[in-house]
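## retry 2 of 3
previous attempt timed out at serialization; input unchanged, resubmitting
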Amino acid sequence: MTQSEISAAVNKIKNVSSDLYDENRRILDFICNGFTIRRDDSSQKDLFINLIDFENPENNIFQIVNQLEVQGREQLRIPDGIVYVNGIPLVVLEFKSAIRENTTIEDAYKQLAVRYRRDIPELFKYNAFVVISDGANSKMGSIFSPYEYFYSWRKVESADKEVDGISSLITMINGCFRPERLLSVIKDFLYFPDSSDNELKIVCRYPQFFAATKLFESIKSSIKPNGSGKGGIYFGATGCGKSYTMVFLSRLLMKSTSLKSSTIIVITDRTDLDDQLGKLFLKSKNYIGDQNIETIENRSSLGEKLRDRQSGGVYLTTIQKFCEDTKLLSERPNIICISDEAHRSQNNLDEKLVVNDEKGIVEHKFGFAKYLHDSFPNATYVGFTGTPIDEMEKVFGEIVDTYTMKESVADGITVNLVYEGRAAKVFLDHKKILEIENYYAQCAEQGANENQIEQSKKAVTNLEAILRDPDVIKAVAEDFINHYETRGREGATVFGKAIFVCSSREAAFDLWKEIVHLRPQWNEKRLCPEDATVSEKEKKELRPIEKIKMVMTENKAKDTKELFELLGNHEYRKELDRQFKNEKSNFKIAIVCDMWLTGFDVPSLDTIYIFKPIQKHTLIQTISRVNRTFKGKEKGLVVDYIGIKKAMNEALKKYTDGEQEEFEDSEKAVVIVKDQLSVVNAMFNKFDASLYYNGTPFQQLETLNKTVEYVQLTEDLEKRFMEAARKMKKTFNLCSTSESFSVDEKNQINFYIAVRAILFKLTKGDAPDIATMNSHVSKLIQEAIKSDGVEELFQVGKNVNFDLFSSEYLEKINRLPLPNTKIKILEQLLKQAIGEYKKTNKIKATEFSERLNSLIIAYNNRFADGDLASKVLDDVAEQLNQLFADMMEDKKSFEAMGIDFEKKAFYDILVSCAKRFNFENQYPKEKMVELAKKVKFLVAQNVKYTDWNHRLDVKAEMKADLRILLDENGYPPVPREEVFKEVFDQAENFKKYE
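## retry succeeded, writing output
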């Protein structure tokens, strides 16, 4: 290569785009897939460039650098670690101390995703992923992802046990950062969609990496004619990201040179799953490496597509389409069939004899898998499932990799499930419960799996009669409404999303009619709930809709006119899908039979009610609808109206490889809540809160505020209370409907939750999340905040008006009879004021911030009792007030100097530098006033460019002009780079907030 060709290759990844996400996607595409450049000699062919040798890791140069100074747009940034491959900074690491209580792994995330991304974006245009760690916890993810989507790499190899704690960082290094593994992750396991409105970038999780790579190796060894055609099974817990694992696998298959561009056929057994996978694959053409990705309407269409090509292509279809005909579609061995939910209808190769009573004959039938294999006799078959069954091995071979429900919960990929049994509340006749149990026993006796069970018509008919009994339907409807509304009142549900699973269409219709009879307002169309806050942009996504809807396919031949019209057509059900997934929509409760029980992801869904006899893999699939992670959602709740606990635990044991014997029961949650309540009550054994429970509304408010004050007697008491109350609230959400709590206990729980909410507001400056509390208590909290002048704290994060800190307002705060609360309010208001002041005068704001921090340290060292404690509180309050006074005086000091507020900021930085570098006697203050005017004028001239913050030329010009201006005015008398940097930082700060 000539020197100019080398420069052309380097410039390919150096050009800066204004959009970091697009630039990162473009550069990583060049790094992972290579690119071409034209030769200087036009007679030669274009040159294909690989910046990294992925095939031979030893040919690359791997380096890690710590504490490298990176000059940012506004200031210097120093990442803790950067991993370079061939000089390209591909991984950035940020660490926080494991022994400092006030720093967390989330602080490391904010450092990277907020401050570093803002200040040194040029570094992240090359970034593959970032790592955050506090020593005890280590996670990795995309710079564009929320913190919730960062995960640990907890294994070195797939068969290893997971590692947590201090050793987790070593595990991540050994598991992800050895050269060949790191290059593999970067090359094939960073996913960008073809287009994205929300900066989507997926960094694989370790179970996805192991599953895709192990399946890939299994497929290569299974290709016919030398192999068996059985590519293997991936047993991955429902909700663990199997769809993306399929996409990762598809890229490996398509990019493999040994497989010579396979044709991939992705098969599901439901139209809704086909739609869901289709959306993902259709926007992944660039990533997979094939522009020919299509969903197939029918079998003949697939045949035409395959006849036109001998390699490549990705086709998505449903297994049912292979029954349309039985002719051969292709004998090619480079066809890979990937089956989703392979345990259901894609594993039955054998012939089955079925008695047709109507015709009086015996029919010979085959399963869908037989027709699929007849269509592609030489293909290799791969199965994905969350619930494997024995019959799958005949079609797909052995399980290649496993990732259980227990592992998924431990990794934070899904949430745990809690069981609450309520069958006894609706079946008052115990004999009916026994009949249901007999039904389950009969199914078990008839065979080990569903495909071997010819269910007795009598058993099914008897069971349906029990479940559709009008008295039972009425009891279920009444208990459901009570349960649902109680959870809503107690703030135990995130957005009130619930699915109710019925045994049949008829039972579902009966239940729907009874519920809307009891709650007619639930059948009224609204855009959103009355108490919801919805932006104009969000309104565009919403449609007027009822709170409760039935979701099932219509049957014109069998449905009554009323039912048929309620169910709507396919397009209507698509809209129901969209509205149920929208947290702000009025559609909260879905009554279903079979739809939405598999492959339907609604992260905010936290409760599922079961009124249908289901078991084994179907049961696990169904209850897993509530296991997705979502902010504020600790666990998913399964409410049982039919007696499925035994079946649940049997299924759990089977599908966790025996690691977990039974689901967590809501009654266990009751025990935990009561234990925590005892702990908190012990903290208040010297405090009389009786007026909260027995007094007037005013006395309740007064007691609430006095309790908040009491908790702040010492920092230790405050921390212990906040942690105990947090645990209590989190667990109470799972069992708030339990009758094991007395009225007094519930009142105490809600009282302590309210105290914690107000204290959280005082210490963190965030508004209490009243949406997740008892509705009565949330009103009390709002009143308590208003009554004590704390309501202004709700303005945190918004533009603060300095008039807020008037002498009248401070007097109002200082009149508070609660010294700890008063100090917390003053602290929060000062933080707001200093943050606002910093926008204009960085140096003075820093001084005031240091003074505030020293006062807070003194306050945190307070004692619980005695005159000394009182003196500390009085001193801190007095000094906080003095800090306010000094700040207001400083803000107005520019008037006496004959300059404005902004010029005073530049004057202060000039004076500060003169003092720190010992030349204040050599440079009179009058000259500094004049110089401050000139600096402010110069900076203001540069601000006239609207895009100055993104223009390096403007910044460079201002830097040069400022250096010349200071030099012309003899500041400092002896040139010092540190002085220039400080003045320039203030100039940048001023420009930022101008």
